Each structure stands twice: as C-alpha cells, then as structure tokens.
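U., I forgot to send this yesterday:
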Amino acid sequence: MLKLIRKMSGAGTRPAPAEALPALICGIGAAIAIAATAGLSELFSAELMMAPFGASCFLAFAVPESPLAQPRNIVLGHLVASGVGLAILTLLGPGWPTMALAVGLAVAAMQWTGTGHAPAGADPIVVFLLRPDFGFLVTPVLAGALLIVAVALIFNNLRPGKRYPVYW
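Result:
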C-alpha cells in the first residue's frame, strides 16, 4: 500500500508556468480558431462547433509539438471517437452503461489506430447527450476539426521558432 501511495505522489517537481507573452500568443491562436469555427457556423447556418474543440485548441496552440496535437490526431481522433460513439448509441441505445462503453472503446480505437487525441475522448459523451445522426461526423466533427487544423497551420507557422505540424 505504501508503494502505491509513493507512486501517486508524483515526481516531486512541477513545470514552471509559461511566460506571459507566449501564453497570451497561444491564447490568441485558440481564440482565432474558435472564432473562425463559431463564426462560420453562424454564417453558413451549419453547426461546426462542439465543446471538445476548446481542448483541441489547447493542444494545437499551447503544445503544437505534442503527438496529440498533430493534424492526423486532431482530425482522425475526433472522427474515430465520434464514430464509435454513434455506432454504440445506434447499436446498443442510450444509457450510462453504453456511454461508458463508448468512451472506453473510443479510447481503445484511437490508441489502436494511432490517432490518440485526448479531447476526442469526450466525443462519445457529446454524442450520447445530443443523439445526432451520422451526419454529425461531417458537421461538426470533420468540418470543425479541419478548421482548427487550418488555423493552427497558419498561426503556428507565423510564429518565430515554431513549426507545425511535426508530422502528418
């Protein structure tokens, strides 16, 4: 038991907070991506927004070098996780046990396909709460994820010393 408690206590040090200006620049990138997604949603009367995209923006703009922030992971992670959520909802119906199963299977599917994207782990929950049809995979999932990646590609590559993506 003591060994388990020691493991849960952490390594003992924590990273220093980011400097104010670089942190603000990351926040500006995230704001631009969400503004583009929400603004285009309104302009075209098409839903391109879902809550997990906020967390995707954190990865894409604050830690763009992270494997979880790469375009493949953002786009395919959301598609895989939402697809799993829709499939489980359709096959097994609503309810907390099937929602939990959908999240677990989505996490496993993203790991198995090499498309891990932490924010997408919430997608099956969104699916179970909204109960959309399979068109959900196109809007908001695919369209919104592609918009975030497009803004991240432009914004991050305009920043000195940054290169995005690390890989496709």
